[in-house]
């Protein structure tokens, strides 16, 4: 199902674990640094600075690529909502090519179909309920297809009804598969695991470098950890919009309007 993978990653849980982990690792790093300074106070730490710079550079690249990828995939999903609304609206209008007596039943099926498509996403994060709504969509697709194709062959249908209506129905059905597939397109979970691990490594190194100060700088500690946590929270929210802080409800309104136009 479209958003079933969302069960695997919870943005609040991931961000909270990230925040707590970074705070702990910064403290561990600080204590390790204090021990190091106690044993060898005059030892050069230039090599550590080079290593820390490389790790922080990698961390920044991972954040940048994750954010960019999540944003582009969100834009693609928004575009698919627009395409589906257009596809349903076009197919509905082309029902006028069918015999008059065949139109009421098919229009009723189209209204049910639009309602079921909206229900698929409105029922999330209840995946089982969304699955049931998706199954209803597929049943309606089959019924609409068989009735519409049969109606194009009846007397009274426009001569080009089959040429115009059938491709529109095909597009309307295909876009549901495209949207379902698009909802599964996410980075492998190992990418988030790597991001988590590198973030903790940066926290450890940052804590180690604060060992030379006599007191903790909570401004720097909380600034680094909170900014990192908020950033990863937004990235996961963009990647999983149906369960995150960012939603597609505004774009779903296009489907609502398409349903309202079905008189």
Describe the structure.
The protein is 77% helix and 0% strand. It has helices at residues 11-39, 46-93, 103-122, 127-152, 161-184, 189-209, 218-239, 249-260. Helix 3 (103-122) runs antiparallel to helix 4 (127-152). The protein starts with 10 loop residues before the first helix and ends with a helix.
User: What is the tally of beta strands?
Assistant: 0
Shape estimate: rod-shaped
Helix content: over 70%
Number of helices: 8
Work out the radius of gyration: 27 Å
Strand content: under 5%
Give the SSE string: HHHHHHHH
**End-to-end CA span:** 31 Å
- Major beta sheet, specifics? none
What class do helices, strands and sheet pairing give?
A: mainly alpha
| Parts with pLDDT < 50 across at least 5 consecutive residues | 1-8
Mean pLDDT: 86
How do the helices and strands line up, and which of them pair or pack?
Layout: H1 11-39, H2 46-93, H3 103-122, H4 127-152, H5 161-184, H6 189-209, H7 218-239, H8 249-260
Helix pairs in contact: 1-6, 1-7, 2-5, 2-6, 2-7, 2-8, 3-4, 3-8, 4-5
In short:
By secondary structure, the protein is mainly alpha-helical.
Task: List the keywords.
0% strand; mainly alpha; disordered N terminus; 263 residues
